[in-house]
Amino acid sequence: MNRAERLSSVLDLLAEDGQIEVDQIVERLGVSPATARRDLDALARQQLLTRTRGGAVAHSVAYDLPIRYKHQQNPDAKAAIARAASELVPRGAVIGLCGGTTATAIADALMSRADIMDPAPDPGLTVVTNAINIAMQLAMRPQIKTVVTGGVVHARSYELVGSYTDGVLGNVSLDFAFIGANGIDPVFGPTSHDEREAAVNALMASRAAHAVLVVDSSKLDKRAFASIGGPRLFQTVITDDEVAEEQRTRLIDAGYDVIVAS
Fold first, then answer.
1. What is the model's pLDDT at position 46?
2. Rounded to an integer, what distance in angstroms lies between the CA atom of residue 103 and that of residue 134?
3. Last-in-domain residue among 58, 85, 105
4. How many domains does one find in the chain?
């Protein structure tokens, strides 16, 4: 287990009860007490926890997520997709993140990376997002420059939509945009249940040098109500290893690069 994976594991342990002791880290992760203390100190410097005598407690979070985030479907697949997306992003990149559970998982994966979270004069990452919950997570990480689009809050998803959102996105340049969808058809392209979210997602993708669809395999060969920019807007699809070979082949034949996350 490398340092970044170990720090992420410490945060997972902390999330279970809201507090953790050095002895627990030693027992669960098989590290020395000195290493456990150094890891807690490193996470405290990143403002991811508060150190206590002999351990740490979680920061309090002054917001609650909609039901879709608490009881998300296919969490393991989305975590795998998030790791694969994070691997595409170099330190110092400018990325766009839409709302949704997969994009939230990508934010978590990026925040666990030591190269991004280590203190430095320049931002380890710049994230442009229209998702309030993602912005709140990132705002506590001074190593990440967070840009919020503005707009009208969509209560179901915590996403910002509308002309104010368009005004900000129309003036930014992104290296990558990671966009979720409710369905993707190889010919018709990605789709969303909500036309306002679809419009924002399409604009965000259009501002990126590389637009990436992040969809678990349950979304493949499905269509929803509103098109997200058509089939030619996105170059890459990241999905999970439950994808059928014929589904992967159809996406490749339609012109997508397909990354299967395991």
1. 77
2. 8
3. 58
4. 2
Can you give the CATH number for the domain in which 236 is found? Answer: 3.40.50.1360
Which CATH number fits the domain that encloses residue 33?
Answer: 1.10.10.10
How large is the average pLDDT for residues 72-96?
92
Query: What six digits make up the tokens of 125?
Result: 């990452």
* pLDDT number for residue 19: 86
Residue with tokens 């789709």: 191
For residues 15 and 58, is the Cβ–Cβ distance under 8 A?
A: yes
pLDDT at position 44: 87
User: What's the whole-number mean pLDDT along residues 214-236?
Assistant: 93
pTM, full prediction? 0.76
> Each residue of 227-252: b (16+ CB within 10 Å) or e?
bbbebebbebbbbbebbeeebbebbe
pLDDT tens for 41-52 read 988 887 778 899
Q: Of the residues 41, 58, 75, which one is the last residue of a structural domain?
A: 58
Cβ atoms of 163 and 196 within 8 Å: the answer is no
Q: How many angstroms separate the Cα of 105 from the Cα of each of 5, 72, 83, 98, 214?
A: 15, 11, 8, 11, 11
- How large is the C-alpha radius of gyration of the chain? 19
Average confidence (pLDDT) over 84-90: 97
